Amino acid sequence: MIATTNRSLRDDVDAGRFRADLYYRLNVVPITIPPLRERLEDIPALAKHFLRKHEPKSQCGLFEISPELAGQLQEHDWPGNVRELENFIRRALALSSGTVLPAQPVEENSQARRADGRDALRSGVTLQSMERQLLEKTLEATGGNRTRTAELMGLSLRTVRNKIREYGLPAWRPA
């Protein structure tokens, strides 16, 4: 079994917030991996990996990260760690109009941050409205190509068609 945490379970056991018996079951071979902000040299390889993982299969190997964006990625502190980087690359691919991902504000793509550094949800924003907005922007970025939209969003073509109908979006057709 592999389990991950960003907390010290030993401290939590000592403070009575985590069961000692469970700690000893999990703590067979502990592997400590520093946060991404302490491994800046890993960012280019991880970004390229996520680019290849999420690019459309029909255009495999065509996408690149611009040198400006690569620099920005190394300057960001990545409070969401590797998952935040992966989601950023997915979002950049979905909204890209070309094969070179341009420089773009990394902070604007992160969720709003509270003063204590934890994520804060913006009030009045529903999951459905965010999903609809992402679908619309991805369709716009792909010129209405539903197949590419499905690939970029990690959905089936059928799901994209159903979501277009569900949200009452116009029939997207490439010009």
Give keywords.
175 residues, mainly alpha, two-stranded parallel ribbon, globular
What does this protein structure show overall?
It is a single chain. Helix content is 49%, strand content 2%. With 175 residues, the chain is mainly α.
Kindly report how far apart the N and C termini lie. 51 Å
In terms of DSSP E residues, the strand content is under 5%
Oligomer: single chain
Largest sheet: spatial strand order: 1-2
- The average pLDDT is 84
Estimate the global geometry from the Cα principal axes: globular
Number of strands: 2
Category from helices, strands and their pairing: mainly alpha
Low-confidence stretches: 108-123
Continuous helix count: 9
> How can the largest sheet be summarized?
2 strands, parallel
Using only C-alpha atoms, the radius of gyration works out to 20 Å
* Helix content class: 40-55%
Secondary-structure element order, as H and E?
HHHEHHEHHHH
Give the SSE layout.
Layout (H helix, E strand, L loop, with lengths): L8 H6 L5 H7 L16 H12 L9 E2 L1 H9 L5 H15 L4 E2 L4 H4 L17 H15 L4 H8 L3 H10 L9
Parallel strand pairs: 1-2
Helix pairs in contact: 3-5, 8-9
